Amino acid sequence: MHIITVCLGNICRSPAAEAVLHARLEEAGLDDVTVSSAGTADYHVGDRPHSQSQAEGESRGYAFTSRGAQLVAGDLEAADLVVVMDSSNEEDVLALAPTPEDEAKVVRLGAFASDATEGGDVADVPDPWGQSREAFVAMYDQVEDAVAGLVAAISEDRVDEVLAAYRAAR
């Protein structure tokens, strides 16, 4: 399975989600899952993660190896799951999806969070760019919770179930 995490610029939220996923998948022994990240815009192609995002992540024990990349249609075709951070990212990715099968792979990270509802109430992961350290702390708290749910869904072979419920509520 290949997962791509996606936000706007690929320097705050999606590299954070990528790093958290790498760590949690390794802890769960799920070595057949790969993760990458990308942004819907080309603002930060080639850049390292935002200094505050990286600092908060490293303080929590996460490693960052990727650089900013822009999502392209071919990425969607190669992915099994495309995890977006907010509804705006979702709209951008769905507009880029070349096929209905690729559209079906797109889900907001919040669909896996402990506070997600069966009726489709899914929280966005707010963009902390340009905000205080507290915004990055809150982002990581939210990402860690949702990633725990995503890793559990992978371990329990429930990803398709979550996607179906999410699409039904979309």
Automatic annotation (TrEMBL):
Keywords from UniProt, A to Z, are: Hydrolase, Protein phosphatase
Query: In what residue span(s) does the Phosphotyrosine protein phosphatase I domain sit?
Result: 1-153
Which SUPFAM superfamilies does the record cross-reference, listed alphabetically? Phosphotyrosine protein phosphatases I (SSF52788)
> What are the protein's GO molecular function terms?
protein tyrosine phosphatase activity
Q: Which InterPro entries match?
A: LMW_PTPase, Ptyr_pPase, Ptyr_pPase_sf, Tyr_phospatase_low_mol_wt
Matching Gene3D superfamilies: 3.40.50.2300
Per the UniProt record, which EC number(s) apply here?
3.1.3.48
- Pfam families linked: LMWPc
Q: Which domain of life is it from?
A: Bacteria
Active site (catalytic residues): 7 (nucleophile), 13 (nucleophile), 127 (proton donor)
Query: Does the record carry Hydrolase as a key word?
Result: yes
Signal peptide start-end: none
Q: Which family does it belong to?
A: Belongs to the low molecular weight phosphotyrosine protein phosphatase family.
Please give the PANTHER family that the UniProt record associates with this protein.
LOW MOLECULAR WEIGHT PHOSPHOTYROSINE PROTEIN PHOSPHATASE, LOW MOLECULAR WEIGHT PROTEIN TYROSINE PHOSPHATASE
Its recorded name reads protein-tyrosine-phosphatase
Q: Kindly list the organism's lineage.
A: Bacteria, Bacillati, Actinomycetota, Actinomycetes, Micrococcales
